[in-house]
Protein backbone atom coordinates (compact mmCIF):
# COMPACT_ATOMS: atom_id res chain seq x y z
CA UNK A 1 0.00 0.00 0.00
CA UNK A 2 1.14 3.56 -0.74
CA UNK A 3 -0.50 4.91 2.42
CA UNK A 4 -1.93 3.37 5.57
CA UNK A 5 -5.66 3.55 6.21
CA UNK A 6 -6.70 6.07 8.90
CA UNK A 7 -8.31 4.87 12.13
CA UNK A 8 -11.84 5.62 10.92
CA UNK A 9 -12.82 5.13 7.29
CA UNK A 10 -15.54 3.83 4.99
CA UNK A 11 -14.74 2.19 1.65
CA UNK A 12 -16.63 3.98 -1.15
CA UNK A 13 -15.18 2.45 -4.30
CA UNK A 14 -12.65 -0.18 -5.42
CA UNK A 15 -11.10 -0.16 -8.90
CA UNK A 16 -8.88 -2.81 -10.49
CA UNK A 17 -6.51 -1.62 -13.21
CA UNK A 18 -4.07 -3.31 -15.60
CA UNK A 19 -1.28 -1.09 -16.86
CA UNK A 20 0.29 -1.02 -20.32
CA UNK A 21 3.11 -3.16 -18.91
CA UNK A 22 0.64 -5.83 -17.71
CA UNK A 23 0.88 -4.93 -14.03
CA UNK A 24 -2.22 -4.95 -11.84
CA UNK A 25 -3.20 -2.33 -9.29
CA UNK A 26 -6.11 -1.87 -6.91
CA UNK A 27 -7.31 1.68 -6.17
CA UNK A 28 -9.49 2.15 -3.09
CA UNK A 29 -11.51 5.32 -2.50
CA UNK A 30 -12.34 5.82 1.18
CA UNK A 31 -14.40 8.32 3.15
CA UNK A 32 -12.90 9.68 6.37
CA UNK A 33 -14.28 12.07 9.00
CA UNK A 34 -13.59 15.72 8.15
CA UNK A 35 -11.02 16.79 10.73
CA UNK A 36 -9.97 20.40 10.36
CA UNK A 37 -6.32 21.05 11.16
CA UNK A 38 -5.47 24.47 12.55
CA UNK A 39 -2.26 25.96 11.18
CA UNK A 40 -1.17 29.14 12.96
CA UNK A 41 2.01 29.74 10.96
CA UNK A 42 2.40 33.25 9.53
CA UNK A 43 4.90 32.11 6.90
CA UNK A 44 4.06 32.44 3.18
CA UNK A 45 6.21 31.05 0.37
CA UNK A 46 5.83 31.49 -3.38
CA UNK A 47 6.67 28.88 -6.01
CA UNK A 48 7.50 29.78 -9.61
CA UNK A 49 7.15 26.95 -12.14
CA UNK A 50 9.63 26.84 -14.99
CA UNK A 51 11.29 24.75 -17.67
CA UNK A 52 15.01 25.13 -16.93
CA UNK A 53 14.35 24.82 -13.21
CA UNK A 54 11.10 22.98 -12.54
CA UNK A 55 10.50 24.86 -9.28
CA UNK A 56 11.92 28.05 -7.80
CA UNK A 57 10.95 29.00 -4.25
CA UNK A 58 10.84 32.50 -2.81
CA UNK A 59 13.57 31.30 -0.43
CA UNK A 60 15.91 31.15 -3.43
CA UNK A 61 15.91 27.33 -3.57
CA UNK A 62 15.65 25.74 -7.00
CA UNK A 63 14.59 22.19 -7.86
CA UNK A 64 14.88 20.43 -11.21
CA UNK A 65 13.53 17.10 -12.38
CA UNK A 66 16.15 14.37 -12.84
CA UNK A 67 17.71 14.27 -16.31
CA UNK A 68 15.45 12.12 -18.49
CA UNK A 69 17.26 12.66 -21.79
CA UNK A 70 18.52 9.07 -22.02
CA UNK A 71 14.94 7.81 -21.75
CA UNK A 72 13.80 10.26 -24.42
CA UNK A 73 16.40 8.79 -26.78
CA UNK A 74 15.15 5.29 -25.94
CA UNK A 75 11.59 6.34 -26.70
CA UNK A 76 12.53 7.61 -30.16
CA UNK A 77 14.38 4.39 -30.96
CA UNK A 78 11.60 2.14 -29.65
CA UNK A 79 8.91 4.10 -31.50
CA UNK A 80 10.83 3.53 -34.74
CA UNK A 81 11.16 -0.19 -33.99
CA UNK A 82 7.46 -0.49 -33.20
CA UNK A 83 6.46 1.20 -36.46
CA UNK A 84 8.40 -1.45 -38.41
CA UNK A 85 6.65 -4.41 -36.78
CA UNK A 86 3.68 -6.09 -38.41
CA UNK A 87 0.38 -5.30 -36.69
CA UNK A 88 -0.96 -8.24 -34.68
CA UNK A 89 2.40 -10.04 -34.58
CA UNK A 90 4.17 -11.28 -31.43
CA UNK A 91 7.18 -9.14 -32.29
CA UNK A 92 5.00 -6.04 -32.35
CA UNK A 93 3.60 -6.90 -28.91
CA UNK A 94 7.15 -7.32 -27.59
CA UNK A 95 8.12 -3.95 -29.04
CA UNK A 96 5.00 -2.34 -27.57
CA UNK A 97 5.79 -3.76 -24.14
CA UNK A 98 9.38 -2.47 -24.27
CA UNK A 99 8.08 0.99 -25.17
CA UNK A 100 5.47 0.91 -22.39
CA UNK A 101 8.12 0.00 -19.83
CA UNK A 102 10.18 3.07 -20.70
CA UNK A 103 7.12 5.32 -20.38
CA UNK A 104 6.37 3.67 -17.03
CA UNK A 105 9.96 4.23 -15.88
CA UNK A 106 9.75 7.94 -16.75
CA UNK A 107 6.43 8.27 -14.90
CA UNK A 108 7.83 6.52 -11.81
CA UNK A 109 10.92 8.76 -11.75
CA UNK A 110 8.82 11.92 -12.01
CA UNK A 111 6.28 10.75 -9.41
CA UNK A 112 9.03 9.82 -6.95
CA UNK A 113 10.71 13.21 -7.41
CA UNK A 114 7.43 15.13 -7.02
CA UNK A 115 6.51 13.27 -3.83
CA UNK A 116 9.93 13.90 -2.27
CA UNK A 117 10.03 17.60 -3.18
CA UNK A 118 6.45 18.32 -2.08
CA UNK A 119 7.11 16.53 1.22
CA UNK A 120 10.16 18.72 1.77
CA UNK A 121 8.29 21.94 0.92
CA UNK A 122 5.35 21.37 3.27
CA UNK A 123 7.34 19.88 6.14
CA UNK A 124 10.56 21.89 6.31
CA UNK A 125 9.39 25.48 5.89
CA UNK A 126 6.89 25.77 8.79
CA UNK A 127 4.60 27.38 6.25
CA UNK A 128 1.00 28.59 6.57
CA UNK A 129 0.38 29.57 2.94
CA UNK A 130 1.84 28.50 -0.39
CA UNK A 131 1.23 30.54 -3.54
CA UNK A 132 1.62 29.03 -7.02
CA UNK A 133 0.83 30.29 -10.51
CA UNK A 134 -2.50 29.48 -12.13
CA UNK A 135 -0.95 28.50 -15.43
CA UNK A 136 -2.97 27.93 -18.59
CA UNK A 137 -1.15 24.67 -19.28
CA UNK A 138 -3.48 23.59 -22.12
CA UNK A 139 -2.95 26.92 -23.85
CA UNK A 140 0.81 26.76 -23.35
CA UNK A 141 0.90 23.26 -24.84
CA UNK A 142 -0.21 24.77 -28.16
CA UNK A 143 3.25 26.33 -28.45
CA UNK A 144 5.06 23.70 -30.53
CA UNK A 145 8.48 24.90 -29.33
CA UNK A 146 7.61 24.55 -25.64
CA UNK A 147 4.98 21.77 -25.51
CA UNK A 148 7.50 18.93 -25.19
CA UNK A 149 9.30 20.59 -22.28
CA UNK A 150 6.08 21.61 -20.53
CA UNK A 151 4.77 18.04 -20.77
CA UNK A 152 7.96 16.67 -19.21
CA UNK A 153 7.73 19.03 -16.21
CA UNK A 154 4.34 17.67 -14.99
CA UNK A 155 3.34 20.98 -13.39
CA UNK A 156 -0.29 19.91 -13.04
CA UNK A 157 0.60 16.76 -11.13
CA UNK A 158 3.00 18.72 -8.91
CA UNK A 159 0.27 21.21 -7.93
CA UNK A 160 -2.25 18.40 -7.27
CA UNK A 161 0.11 16.48 -4.99
CA UNK A 162 1.36 19.63 -3.26
CA UNK A 163 -2.24 20.69 -2.58
CA UNK A 164 -3.36 17.46 -0.92
CA UNK A 165 -0.18 17.22 1.19
CA UNK A 166 -0.56 20.84 2.25
CA UNK A 167 -4.23 20.31 3.14
CA UNK A 168 -3.28 17.44 5.44
CA UNK A 169 -1.14 19.91 7.42
CA UNK A 170 -3.64 22.77 7.37
CA UNK A 171 -1.59 24.74 4.83
CA UNK A 172 -3.53 26.91 2.39
CA UNK A 173 -2.53 26.68 -1.28
CA UNK A 174 -3.41 29.77 -3.32
CA UNK A 175 -3.35 30.01 -7.11
CA UNK A 176 -2.34 33.49 -8.20
CA UNK A 177 -4.33 35.01 -11.03
CA UNK A 178 -2.70 34.10 -14.35
CA UNK A 179 -2.63 37.79 -15.35
CA UNK A 180 -0.51 38.69 -12.31
CA UNK A 181 2.88 39.72 -13.84
CA UNK A 182 5.09 38.00 -11.27
CA UNK A 183 8.14 37.84 -13.56
CA UNK A 184 7.88 41.46 -14.70
CA UNK A 185 7.25 43.08 -11.31
CA UNK A 186 10.18 44.26 -9.18
CA UNK A 187 9.78 42.43 -5.86
CA UNK A 188 11.49 45.35 -4.08
CA UNK A 189 9.69 48.47 -5.33
CA UNK A 190 6.71 47.06 -7.29
CA UNK A 191 7.61 48.58 -10.66
CA UNK A 192 6.20 46.57 -13.60
CA UNK A 193 8.85 46.25 -16.32
CA UNK A 194 7.09 45.24 -19.54
CA UNK A 195 10.45 45.07 -21.33
CA UNK A 196 11.27 41.72 -19.70
CA UNK A 197 8.31 39.66 -20.97
CA UNK A 198 10.60 37.57 -23.18
CA UNK A 199 11.40 34.25 -21.45
CA UNK A 200 14.95 34.44 -22.79
CA UNK A 201 15.65 37.30 -20.37
CA UNK A 202 16.84 35.45 -17.25
CA UNK A 203 18.25 38.43 -15.33
CA UNK A 204 17.25 42.08 -15.31
CA UNK A 205 17.87 45.30 -13.38
CA UNK A 206 14.95 47.41 -12.14
CA UNK A 207 15.20 50.86 -13.77
CA UNK A 208 13.56 52.46 -10.73
CA UNK A 209 15.36 51.04 -7.67
CA UNK A 210 18.38 49.42 -9.36
CA UNK A 211 17.80 45.94 -7.90
CA UNK A 212 19.25 43.10 -10.00
CA UNK A 213 16.82 40.21 -10.35
CA UNK A 214 17.03 36.52 -11.16
CA UNK A 215 13.83 36.13 -13.19
CA UNK A 216 12.52 33.03 -11.42
CA UNK A 217 13.48 33.98 -7.86
CA UNK A 218 11.96 37.43 -8.36
CA UNK A 219 8.72 35.83 -9.64
CA UNK A 220 8.58 33.49 -6.63
CA UNK A 221 9.08 36.41 -4.24
CA UNK A 222 6.22 38.29 -5.90
CA UNK A 223 3.98 35.24 -5.58
CA UNK A 224 4.75 35.04 -1.86
CA UNK A 225 3.86 38.72 -1.45
CA UNK A 226 0.70 38.13 -3.51
CA UNK A 227 -0.39 35.69 -0.82
CA UNK A 228 0.27 38.29 1.85
CA UNK A 229 -1.83 40.93 0.12
CA UNK A 230 -4.83 38.73 -0.73
CA UNK A 231 -7.70 40.32 1.24
CA UNK A 232 -9.88 38.12 3.40
CA UNK A 233 -12.93 36.90 1.47
CA UNK A 234 -11.54 37.91 -1.91
CA UNK A 235 -10.82 35.15 -4.40
CA UNK A 236 -7.46 35.17 -6.25
CA UNK A 237 -9.35 35.16 -9.56
CA UNK A 238 -10.60 38.67 -8.76
CA UNK A 239 -7.09 40.08 -8.90
CA UNK A 240 -6.14 42.08 -11.98
CA UNK A 241 -2.75 43.25 -13.30
CA UNK A 242 -3.12 46.59 -11.52
CA UNK A 243 -2.87 44.76 -8.19
CA UNK A 244 0.78 43.95 -8.87
CA UNK A 245 2.11 47.14 -7.29
CA UNK A 246 0.32 46.25 -4.06
CA UNK A 247 2.25 43.00 -3.83
CA UNK A 248 5.44 44.90 -3.08
CA UNK A 249 3.94 46.44 0.06
CA UNK A 250 4.41 44.81 3.48
CA UNK A 251 1.46 43.11 5.15
CA UNK A 252 0.63 42.93 8.83
CA UNK A 253 0.48 39.60 10.64
CA UNK A 254 2.05 37.53 7.86
CA UNK A 255 5.56 37.33 6.49
CA UNK A 256 6.83 36.20 3.13
CA UNK A 257 9.90 33.99 3.02
CA UNK A 258 11.99 35.59 0.29
CA UNK A 259 15.48 34.31 0.95
Textual characterization of the structure:
By secondary structure, the chain is an alpha/beta fold. It has one domain (about 10-255). Helix content is about 35%, strand content about 20%. The strands form 3 sheets. Strands 3, 4, 5, 6, 7 and 10 form a 6-stranded mixed β-sheet that branches. The protein starts with 9 loop residues before the first strand and ends with a strand. About 25% of the residues are buried.
> Any idea what the shape is?
flat
Helical residues, percent:
25-40%
User: How large is the count of helical segments?
Assistant: 6
Largest sheet data? 6 strands, mixed
Strand content: 15-25%
Mean pLDDT comes to 84
Alpha-carbon Rg, integer: 22 Å
Number of strands: 10
> Structural class, please?
alpha/beta
The H-and-E topology, N to C, reads as EEEEEHHEHHHEEEHE
Intertermini distance: 38 Å
Low-confidence stretches: 232-248
Write down the domain tally: 1
Key phrases:
259 residues; alpha/beta; 6-stranded mixed sheet; two-stranded antiparallel ribbon; 6 helices; 10 strands
Summarize the structure.
With 259 residues, this protein is α/β, with parallel strands linked by helices.
Give the helices and strands, then pairings:
Blueprint: E1 10-18, E2 24-31, E3 43-49, E4 55-57, E5 62-63, H1 69-84, H2 90-124, E6 129-133, H3 137-140, H4 147-153, H5 155-168, E7 172-176, E8 203-205, E9 212-214, H6 215-229, E10 255-256
Parallel strand pairs: 3-6, 3-10, 6-7
Antiparallel strand pairs: 1-2, 3-4, 4-5, 8-9
Family: In the C-terminal section; belongs to the transposase 35 family.
Pfam family, one: Cas12f1-like_TNB
Keywords: DNA recombination, DNA-binding, Transposition
